[in-house]
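Tokens for UPF0042 nucleotide-binding protein. Go.
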Amino acid sequence: MVVTGLSGSGKSTAIKAFEDIGYLCIDNLPVPLLPALLDLCEGEMPDTRKVALGIDIRERTFLKAYEKIFKEIQEKGYNLEILFFEASVDVLQRRYSQTRRIHPLELWDGYKTDRSENSGEHGGIRRSLLEAINRERELLKPLRDRATKVIDTSELTVHALKQMITTTYRLVREEEAMTVQVLSFGFKYGVPHDADMVLDVRFLPNPFFVESLRPLTGCNPEVQTWVFSHDDTQDFIRLVESLLEFLVPRYLKEGRRYFTIAFGCTGGKHRSVVMAEHFSSWFRNRGFYTLTFHRDAGNE
């Protein structure tokens, strides 16, 4: 597992989470050493089967060397997955402003800037920092395009990010072709950034307006029975199942290892939860390792 992406996007937190679930972890590894490390693991540490490596622009040969090195190790038969982390510019600015750390690109020729020269900058953000953030995003775009999975951490706390890594990667079994994550969420709290497919179920009848059902969530059988009792719900389920029957075999043929589908309603408490529960069962019944998250079900 290559953990990479934008500086300040949570890669170090992810590496610690991988370490906690039994991966051999090395951060800031010079990419030319990667083949030798994997050969060492195979020869001297044969029980080491899961490795997570933090590799990014802190190591200055990375941009020039990663394409050739990644191709080389894949040709040797290693299963290489690239987990790319990113966040919005505003969030990255805030994180660097709070920690007062220097962006790695600011230390490169052309970016290095004395802090004292930036005391009058707008909003307390170093001009060189903004340039570095935008330039790094540009430089890493080809790597992002080939990533196995992209995770936007803009709205994730450190705890939520650790939980996501732990839940997703601790229990994945090698014989399973694809891991499916099914999410429910409320549009009023924002759309999840890492979903491959987002389906809006706000058109379905809303249990919120039934006084006896309002305090409950979509995990409750009473709420589920009420939502399923409507024709629109049955039509929607039938159409989505037909769509997934078409898509899933093609995702597998493509070699996709992870698929995230998100169902959203207004508050993320009733309709979206019911749909997430239903389609989690749908995937499990077809043999997929399935994780279910109800992001906003506990919100008032």
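The longest helix spans residues 231-254.
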